[in-house]
């Protein structure tokens, strides 16, 4: 279920105040038996003020963008970590995943490496296994992240059946040439450039840890 825009009341307040003021001035003019000079001047100022409020409200409707509507992702919250990982890799993955969940719009994430799932955390999708589709394969092959800003618009979204079915946005961040970090958001167009840079930095730390400890284990 989509959450309502929290700023809608603020954006509409000048429109409501201006419209209400204009109506009250009109009623006052109609009911006045005798119009004095001071009342006429007050009415003119009141009409101007109401018009300015209405104009301000209309400008706010255009200037202030609506925040992306978020949804409650479908699924159970959980934390699954491959039991045979070295302790230092477990610690690294646990730390990285909690940082991403707390500090970005990420609500579900998966780490796939060397052909298997090492981590699932957040709102878990229906499928446990990851079968890399064309989008994930492209991210790994080109060593560049792929950001699907509104997942429902992409036909290739069917490959992300290991994420909640109503995931709104996805980032596929390569972990070197051996894996990928997949993040799901609960709102479209919600990752900022700063988020993307931060995710890239965390992914580099994960890749460095896994390439070192999994090879030497």
Automatic annotation (TrEMBL):
Protein name: Cofactor assembly of complex C subunit B
Protein keywords: Membrane, Transmembrane, Transmembrane helix
Pfam families reported in the protein's UniProt record: CCB2_CCB4
PANTHER family: PROTEIN COFACTOR ASSEMBLY OF COMPLEX C SUBUNIT B CCB4, CHLOROPLASTIC, PTHR34943
Record has Cytoplasm as a keyword: no
InterPro entries membership: CCB2/CCB4, CCB4, GAF-like_dom_sf
Example of a GO biological process term: cytochrome b6f complex assembly
TM region positions: 12-31, 43-60
């Amino acid at each position: 279920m989509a959450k309502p825009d929290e700023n809608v009341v603020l954006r509409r307040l000048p429109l409501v105040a201006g419209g209400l003021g204009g109506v009250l001035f009109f009623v006052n003019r109609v009911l006045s038996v005798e119009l004095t000079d001071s009342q006429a001047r007050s009415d003119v100022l009141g009409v101007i003020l109401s018009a300015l409020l209405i104009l301000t409200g209309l400008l706010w409707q255009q200037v202030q963008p609506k925040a992306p509507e978020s949804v409650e992702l479908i699924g159970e919250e959980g934390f699954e970590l491959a039991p045979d990982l070295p302790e230092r890799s477990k610690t690294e993955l646990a730390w990285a995943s909690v940082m991403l969940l707390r500090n970005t719009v990420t609500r579900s994430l998966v780490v796939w490496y060397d052909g298997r799932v090492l981590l699932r955390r957040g709102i878990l999708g229906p499928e446990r296994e990851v079968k890399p589709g064309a989008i994930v394969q492209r991210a790994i092959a080109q060593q560049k992240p792929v950001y699907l800003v509104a997942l429902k618009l992409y036909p290739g979204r069917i490959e992300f059946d290991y994420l909640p079915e109503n995931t709104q946005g996805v980032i596929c961040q390569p972990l070197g040439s051996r894996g990928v970090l997949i993040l799901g958001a609960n709102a479209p167009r919600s990752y900022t450039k700063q988020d993307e840079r931060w995710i890239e930095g965390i992914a580099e730390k994960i890749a460095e840890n896994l390439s070192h400890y999994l090879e030497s284990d």
